[in-house]
Every structure is written in structure tokens, then in C-alpha cells.
Amino acid sequence: MRALQIQAPGKAAIVEVEPPRPGSGEVLVQVEAVTSCPQWDLHLMAGEQMFPEVPIQYPYPPGQPGHEAVGTVTEVGDGVRGLRLGMRVAAWRDPGHDQLGSYAEYVVRAEDDLLPVPADLPPEALAPLELAMCVQVSFESLERRDAIAGQRIAIGGLGPAGLVAVQLARVHGAAEVIGIDPVAGRRRAAHELGADRVVRPEDLPEPRHRWTGDAPFDVAIDCVGSAPSVQYLMDRTRLAVALFGVLREDVAFGWKHFIGLGLLGYGEHHRGAAEVALRHVLDGRLDLGALVTQSMPLTDYEEGHALLGTREALKICFYL
Fold this sequence. Notes:
Blueprint: E1 2-8, E2 11-16, E3 26-35, H1 38-46, E4 68-76, E5 88-91, E6 106-110, E7 114-116, H2 129-143, E8 152-156, H3 160-171, E9 176-180, H4 184-192, E10 197-199, E11 217-222, H5 227-234, E12 237-243, E13 262-264, H6 271-282, E14 294-297, H7 301-309, E15 316-319
Parallel strand pairs: 8-9, 8-11, 9-10, 11-12, 12-13, 14-15
Antiparallel strand pairs: 1-2, 3-4, 3-6, 3-15, 4-5, 5-7
Helix pairs in contact: 2-3, 2-6
């Protein structure tokens, strides 16, 4: 069968690999479509580490880093109880990058890593479910502090994760949603998806008050992952900043943040968060298809990667 393989920085090719077979508790999925995860795709094609001190070895495992997938169950292993042949499913959990990934015609996944999805929704509306689950985890961290409903929430970075966060902030009852991004097109997308205000970082210069803790935002979620972005939000947020973007640098939490501000690390992926996200997709309050700005065959992966790198594409749906 065919699968994508990143063979070296800047070089990807379609290769032939042996079709996988499901083991106990697993199913074989014929992949319909996969949406890009720009962080992984851009880092791997650039030869840059996604996480500090985790080296990359090339050629990368076939099918990787594809993990936001939707497809059809074509074979069922022993012990599978909840899935059946012909069922359409979406992946909610990335099982790791040391095995065959979903940029492939067929992939094996554990039953628990998949959720049944409707047959009548387009793949763009379902494949990014794993991303939606991840963002929902950050909202759960804030909810445990009663820090969303009725609050002013800032979303730092309006890439795919930030646009999911804008929508989930509305779902979770935020009083005001402020999207922050230097790119005009991303600010427009956030406004269309429910942000009350969209601004450039330089449009909000005032910091939190060093003694009272008063600030432009009550809570914030950073979807960028850079130290300057996190620091910007910490300096302008009253109650809590939740980290979603992969932070590779240290940030300075100091005396001016001492009064009232909490800095929340990322939580743990779990099926319940995926089920909540899927429920919001099905009830129309979470539009994952809006994240996808281009669709193309997997054979055009290098072209798609270039569009991600120049920000001409926000998220790409690759179909098999």
C-alpha cells in the first residue's frame, strides 16, 4: 500500500509499505482523509525538533506525522466490542510517532483511540477531532478554577488551535472572547467564528497592575508556544494563563505576577475530552471544517507543506 514518508529535511515521497494487520483490541482503518498538524509537519520537514532534547531520525516512520484522520473500519481484531466493519471513525488520540502514521492508505489503531462519527459530514469537519480534544483539555484546566464562564478570555495565536479555542470559549460561557494575532487573515477568521474582538499584539500595550492585579484579560490561553507570546499574556492577564502551544523556552514568572495570577501547564489527553468536542461538532457549535483552507491529494504533500510554511494555508485536508 502507499504511504507518505519524510525521508530527509525538505524531502517527502510516496512509498510502498506492507499493509498492517490489526491485533487484539485493534481495527484496520481505510483512511479517507487526514488534516495537517502544522506544528509537526513544519518541524519535521525543516529538520527541527518538535520537543527539546528529542532528536529526529530520518527517514521518518512511514505515514508520520499524520494523526488527524477519518476513515472506515475494514477489519476488526480479536476483542473489539464497540466498532464494526463499515463504521466510519475519527482518531481522537495520537498513539505516537514510532509506528505507521495516518498519511497512508490503511492504518491500524487501538479501538479506544477511535470514535464513531456520522457518515454524512465532510471529512474536513471530522478529521481535526484530535486537535479539538487537545484544546478541550486546556479548557477543562481553566474550568477547574472556575475561570471561564462570565470571564474575559484572550486567545493568543489564531492558528488552527486558536480558532478552536475561540469557539470553545463561546461554548464554555466566556463573557468576552479576544483573539490576538499579527496576521490579518487569521484575525478575520477568528471574528467570523465568534471572537468579540480581534487585535494585533501591539494594540493592547497596557500591562496588569503590579499591586491590584487588574488587567485587560481575566484569563488567557496561549496557542503559540513561544516565550514572548506567553510573557505577553502573563503581563496582561488577571487570573490564569493556560499553556497549549508547545513551550520550548523558559518564561519569567516574577514579582509583577505574584498577586493573583496562575500559570497552568498542559493537562492529559483523555477520551472524555474527545467526546465533548465531538458533541459540540455534532450540535453545530464547533466548526472544525472552518480550519481547513485547502484540500489536495496526499501526493501533493510537498506543495501543501509549502503553503503551510508561507501561511497561505491554515490547515490542509489531504485525501487518499
